[in-house]
Amino acid sequence: MIIQGLKKYGWTLIGLAAMLVSIYLLYNKLQNISLEDVIARLRALSFRHWALAIIFALFSYAALAGYDRIALRHLGKHISWLFITLCSFTTYALSHNIGASVFSGALVRYRAYSSKGLSGAEIAILVAFCSFTFILGTLLLFGLVFILRPDVINLIYERPSERFIFTLGCSLLAVVGLYVLGSLLRLRPLKIGSKAQIVYPKPKIVFQQLLIGPLELLSAAGIIYAALPESGNPGFIVILAVFLTSFTATLLVNAPAGGLGVLEIIFIKGMPTMNETDVIAALIVFRLLYLIVPLIISVFIVAIFEAQQFMYRRGRKYRPATEPPPAALPETGGETDPTAAEQEETAWPPAKKNQPPEESDQAAASSATAPAQAEPEIPAEAKSAVKPE
Fold first, then answer.
1. Poorest-confidence range of 27-36, 132-141, 146-155, 326-335?
2. Can you say whether the dihedral through the CA atoms of 121, 123, 126, 131 is positive or negative?
3. 63 within some domain
4. pTM, entire model
């Protein structure tokens, strides 16, 4: 019983534990930070900072909609772009805040795409494909960052050497390259264990994955970059590396509330040249535009969708039948068909009532073929009796 409970809720407990530990560490870090200073920093953000952050947030969620659209193209399904955008927006807005994005996202997608005729197996493939697109984008960006700035990992973890990080970056890009090569050569599916396998999509789909996956992560990191001041700013590549590390850690431990505490701890540690107040203010902007506002909008989208589904089901339940009921077959229990009776009355020569059908047919045939008989001759006496005066 305990083992089954751990299997069912194990990752949720791990996520909660990681969040609680991170909040405790963050509390110790924030003791030296004044709330008034954070509010003052938020007020000091110019219109340009807010505008860039909002643009990056829009690009990020537009790229997330591309995840679903690419997966549907892989399945050969055609659904309107508006429906895909709203479904994807709601899925990620809820999963980023709730945690356990694979499971919570799967529930939202199943509710939405099943109304468009997709089966449970197709929706499962769609969810797995979207997750793989994210992994592919993460591997690609990690590989590029480790090659361009192999020293960046020392900001978070000081033990690895730059040569090791550079080699690791090359290995990650090699994995991405093998995936692209398998698609170009149309290789057989790559089996992972006894149940899972990777089916290589068409090259056009793969190149779209390589474009949309990194674009979403770059845009999300751009929100934080836009909210940071120029003084002490380590540059976009460092911010991207710290964001990839913190965001990946948040997803791996299934931390709810957008990885509350996990994101802040890794950013404060990974950006020692920045003022901690500026870092916290930038992360507040990120949470506002990437998590809180989308969550509020998604609640209204879900309410409107469910209301439409309810009205549709109610309309189908009370809709009158559009086709009349099928006509009843004529009964043969003693009643005659009016059409047949009318034909019988207009038939010539009339058949005898008690005559069998065969005999009436023979009588009609004989009457049709018999020669006309001469009229009987009237006697002269009878003619003179009726002669007018």
1. 326-335
2. negative
3. yes
4. 0.71
As a whole number of angstroms, the distance between CA 287 and CA 141 comes to 22
Q: How far is CA 46 from CA 50, 228, 246, in A?
A: 7, 11, 27
User: In the chain, how many domains are there?
Assistant: 1
Looking at residue 93, its pLDDT comes to 85
Residue 369 lies in a domain: no
Instruction: Return the SS3 of 198.
Output: strand
Mean of the pLDDT values across residues 213-240? Answer: 91
3-state SS string for 331-351: CCCCCCCHHHHHHHHHCCCCC
Report how far apart the first and last C-alpha atoms of the chain are (Å, whole number). 130
Neighbours of 310 (CB within 10 A): 10
User: Domain span at residue 304?
Assistant: 10-312
Amino acid occupying residue 272:
P
d(CA 271, CA 110): 40
- Take residue 203 and report the two structure tokens written for it: 């090259």
Q: Is residue 154 part of a domain?
A: yes
| DSSP track, 67-103 | HHHHHHHHHT----HHHHHHHHHHHHHHHHHHS-HHH
Q: Tell me the pLDDT tens digit for each residue of 124-144.
A: 889 889 989 999 999 999 999
**Residue 187 maps to a domain:** yes
